[in-house]
Every structure is written in structure tokens, then in C-alpha cells.
Predict the 3D structure of the following.
Amino acid sequence: MTDEVLAGGRNNPGVVRRGDTVRRQVGEAAPLVHAYLRHLEAVGFDGAPRVLGVEGGVEVLSYVPGEVAADPGWVPGKGNPLTVEMRSEGALMEVAGLLRRLHAASAGFVPPGGGLKDGEIVSHGDLGPWNTVYRDGRPVAFIDWDACRPTTPLLDVAAAAWAFVPLESDRQLLEAGFEVVPDLGARLRVFVDAYGIGDRSGVVPALVRVKLREAGRVEGWGLGARDSAVSMEFFATELRWLETQTEQLERALR
């Protein structure tokens, strides 16, 4: 049986499909990832692949058929190309609903070794169209779970909003495929309402905290001075852009 190299996901290269399975090297986070995915399966969450086993240092997962918005040439600061269906308001609402179901399914999961604080759950950790399987333009599952980690539901919604709304500059939105720059405040409101957030006053502050958290992880990436500086400047650019949009976003969320 011939292996098919898969382009989806950003955290683990060298992923191949073999029949109805996906195979890739076991990562350092495998104990947590496998325990989490098995928990999601046990509680009936169908928006994630199943862990089928490990064979000689290669993990075997179930293959989730569909389309992933993966751009092999993507670099930070570039818009991620999306089809018309993927960037539709309907898809935005459905991915918010899928995220809400993930959070509900995550309740009760305790990672190996514990470590959850009050109000925290484990979630995907790198949600975006590049890690989402779409079928007929509808989001049906999340893939590439190597970044799963503790977070709070609000921070996870904020992180997902950055990626799915998406909260980006006009240039990036056009690169993503939008023919006309959309009303980001309106799309953010659609997303958080579809998720079911009652008190929206904490959403914009959470958007800031998410980027500060991501910047804090640069230390653990093993980068040199130059690449670390580039990464930190990327997050700083996003926060500067967010400051220019804060009034509009807060108005839309009232």
C-alpha cells in the first residue's frame, strides 16, 4: 500500500496516510496527546482522530477524510488561504460550535501527572483552519494535537478567534481569499455568540492575553537570538494591530 504525504498541520511534519490510517513519528507530548484523544473518544466527541496504537516509534491514528486549509508556503504574517466555504459565516458559526463541544468533552479529563488549575481544561493548543478538517466546506474535526495543553475556555475561544475570524490586517485578509475586507467586529461577534459566551466583556482582554502567552513560549522553542527576535516582533506586530482595532471590536461585542 502506497503512503500519501499529508500537508495538514504545522506541528509535526512527515505525516503520511496509509489506507484509513495516519502515521507519524511519536512526539514528546505523546503520553498527554494519546491520553487526551482516548478521553475524547470515550466521551463520544467525534471531532478528533482516534489513537489506534504505536508501531516501532510511529503512532497510528484514524484518518479523518476531508479538506484542510494547509499552505506549505505559509510563514508568520501571511494570510492563510481559505476557500469561499471555509471563510463563510456559516463555517465560522459551526467551528465555534465544534469548539464548544470540544470544551464540554474535555471537562473531567485530568492530564497524566495532573497540573490543572481551577477553571482550566486541556484543549487543542493550535486551533486554526490549518488544523481543521472541512467536508463540503463545513468543519468536522480538528487534527494535529501535539500542542494540546491546559488553558481556560475563554482564552481558548480568544485564540481560536484570532485564527478563524480571522483577526488580521487587510493585506492578510486579502491573501486569505476575501475579495472584500470583512467587518471583523461583526465576525468576532458571530463567533463568540455561536460559541455561547454570555458575558462578552472579557473577550478583547483575552485576545491580548493569548498573544502574551504565546510570546512567553518563545523561550522554549530553542531558537537563536535572530529567530527569537523575529518571533517576538511578530507577536508585537499583532498586538499593535489589535490596539488599532480594539474600539471597533469592543463596540461590536456590546
About this structure: The chain has a mean pLDDT of 94.
